[in-house]
Design a protein that fits this description.
Protein name: DUF378 domain-containing protein
Structural class: mainly alpha
Organism: Noviherbaspirillum suwonense
Distance between the termini: 45 Å
Number of strands: 0
Number of helices: 5
Pfam families: DUF378
Keywords: Membrane, Transmembrane, Transmembrane helix
Radius of gyration: 22 Å
Strand content: under 5%
Helix content: over 70%
Shape: elongated
């Protein structure tokens, strides 16, 4: 007696099981997106430490007001702007 369910390998190859929304969400994240995310996490942790304990981790590591510290702050800001662009692009893709 056979069952109603297809064999497991047949189910994996069935293209009808995938919806369009799943494909747009599961889009691959590029290296630039990962870099932006890591920089925003660094910035978020730094601002959390500044707000909670008055510790500026970036200034402690790179020096207060040094070129390296200012570069890190600028990169975190650029990463946030890039993420705004990425989120607006993802939102417009989802409206189709």
């Amino acid at each position: 007696m056979s069952t109603m369910n297809p064999h497991i390998t047949e189910r994996r190859r069935n293209p009808e099981r995938r919806s369009g929304a799943d494909q747009s969400i599961a889009r691959r994240i590029g290296a630039f997106d990962w870099l932006a995310m890591v920089l925003m996490i660094i910035g978020g942790i730094n601002w959390g430490l500044v707000g909670l304990m008055n510790i500026d981790l970036v200034a402690a590591v790179f020096g207060d007001g040094t070129t390296a510290a200012r570069a890190v702050y600028a990169l975190v800001g650029l990463a946030a702007l890039y993420s705004i662009y990425t989120m607006s692009k993802m939102a417009s893709d989802g409206q189709r």
